[in-house]
Design brief:
This protein is 40% helix and 17% strand. It has 2 domains: 10-168, Trna Endonuclease, Chain: A, domain 1 (3-Layer(aba) Sandwich), CATH 3.40.1350; 171-273, Arc Repressor Mutant, subunit A. It has helices at residues 10-19, 61-72, 87-97, 140-155, 170-179, 189-205, 211-221, 228-238, 263-273; strands at residues 45-49, 54-58, 76-84, 103-104, 107-108, 112-119, 126-131, 159-163, 242-243, 259-260. A 4-stranded mixed beta sheet has the order 3-6-7-8, with helices on both faces. It is of the alpha+beta class and 275 residues long.
């Protein structure tokens, strides 16, 4: 896995700040670290974000899983990854806590949080997620730096949460990973409504049949290329035209387990996502 170990000189820190790293909102946000800044000896990812309409920089499969979950969640408003912490604040907190501040060759290094998230949830409008593999938590130095980061966000009065791979069900990740690319497919609103009507009828006719088998049957009945109907069903699920239990493998879903989204709600959601 990729590890976010980097060493900046004072000049490089100044250059990154001048470039606007760690600043901006939504499409204009620039992460403090990008995949080009670190050695490519691990599982780093560059992923397009539908909410931000920009490329996100992630440094492990775990960060990718967390990002996809955040993107999938309807309450997520904005995701800022690799968000830098104010150096003067972390220096002060390190001194107060008796924790050695991250440094290299005498140059104090900026710390960063994996995800700063803005949400539509009024009870938690902003929170921070730090993604760490469970095995990393056995390292005392890692724990020290996490504590420093936690104190930073306490001072900022923002909820800080630590998440490991044990917090993410593999089925949820696999489902979202399969659906996510289809969210980007551009389909006319009228065509989506026609597809919803067509597939809703097919699902109603075979409530105990898996989506996979329904798709195969439609392909055969209409002389379509094998996989065409499954592609369309995937698009409809990705755009939330039909809702389902995300904790159940998509390949095991039967038609009767789907809930059709109200047409007015669906069109409003599609209009928002296309803006």
């Amino acid at each position: 896995m990729a590890r976010k170990k980097y060493s900046n000189s004072l000049a490089k820190n100044a250059r990154w700040i001048k470039e606007g790293r760690g600043a901006g909102r939504n499409q204009e946000y620039k992460p403090w670290l990008t995949v080009r800044d670190l050695p490519s000896d691990g599982r780093s990812h560059r992923v397009f974000g539908h909410k931000s309409q920009r490329t996100h920089h992630l440094f492990s499969d775990l960060e990718l899983a967390v990002f996809l979950l955040l993107e999938w969640h309807s309450e997520t408003q904005e995701i800022r990854e690799q968000f830098p912490l104010q150096l003067e604040v972390t220096l002060e907190l390190a001194k107060e806590a008796g924790i050695v501040h991250p440094a290299n060759a005498g140059v104090m290094q900026y710390m960063s949080s994996d995800f700063l998230v803005n949400s539509h949830n009024s009870e938690q409008p902003k929170f921070v997620l730090q993604a760490k593999y469970a095995e990393a938590l056995s390292d005392p130095r890692t724990v020290e730096k996490l504590e420093l980061e936690r104190r930073y966000w306490v001072k900022k009065e923002v909820d800080w949460l630590l998440i490991t791979e044990q917090d993410i069900p593999i089925t949820v990740f696999q489902n979202i990973n399969w659906l996510y690319p289809a969210q980007r497919d551009e389909i006319d609103g009228d065509e989506i409504l026609q597809r919803v009507q067509f597939y809703a009828h097919q699902f109603k006719e075979a409530p105990k049949t898996t989506l996979l088998n329904i798709a195969k049957s439609i392909d055969v009945a209409y002389g379509l290329p094998l996989g065409e109907s499954l592609r369309e069903i995937r698009q409809l699920l990705a755009k939330r035209c039909f809702l389902f239990d995300i904790y159940k493998p998509v390949i095991k879903l039967v038609a009767g387990e789907l809930i059709q989204t109200d047409t007015h709600v669906l069109m409003e959601a599609l209009n928002v996502s296309n803006k």
